[in-house]
Amino acid sequence: MESGYIAEIFSSFQGEGAYTGRRQIFIRFAGCPLSCFYCDTPSAHDSRPKLCTVFGKSNNHVIENPMTSQLVIEWANELRTPDVHSICYTGGEPLLQTEFVKQIAREAESMQLNNFIETSGYSARAFAALAEDFEFASIDIKLKHHRAVEDSNYDRLYANELECVKIAVDRGIDTIVKVVVLKDTTADEIEAVCRDLAEFDIKFVLQPVTAPHHLPDVAPGANELFRLSEVAGRFLTDVMVIPQLHKFMHIQ
Ligand code: SF4
Asked: pLDDT tens digits, residue range 25-49?
């Protein structure tokens, strides 16, 4: 049985993208190989946390890591409610623990739960290894000025992200592609990404960054969002602009 490192397990509403508002059970995997400057999950960078917090219906529980896949799914099932849309595998970066994720996803399937992965798409090989176990995938496209990686590694990251989108669409996964946009995101950048995505049947989300406290001025204004959305609409049929709802609702 596989075991791995989880930061949190909780039930909430999806706060990002095309499935915003759906109730999900979130499994937050520990660790992320990227370093986006706006990251709102600093705990994601500890790839070996000693403890996982399960936010229960009435009490919180602290569980020692590493956890077995069976224990993870038992806690997820404990949080199950009649409105649950799916289990959301998030991070951090779930692709860092592929076999562990795969085993949890298989156990979830056997319990008639749908699987939804949120990933930066940093490794197409890792994504390919578990794609067959997912019904939904939300794949990020990072822009160079997100500073997710050194500039010299950016082209490789971008190629992996595009390949993940291709794999997801080819396998019939309901695929959402999300780009975080900032005040200085240009129309040319969005056009270049959308040209590369034009051949794929995807839902495309422009997500205005939620400005971190130390950088209050990085969020785009409404006019910038209208402009970027119009650019995307020239290449893609299903374009939406959605901020992070959970930040407005003050929930996880
Ligand atoms: S990919 Fe996500 S978790 Fe990783 S650094 Fe970027 S925003 Fe943070």
From this structure: 999 999 999 999 999 887 678 999 9
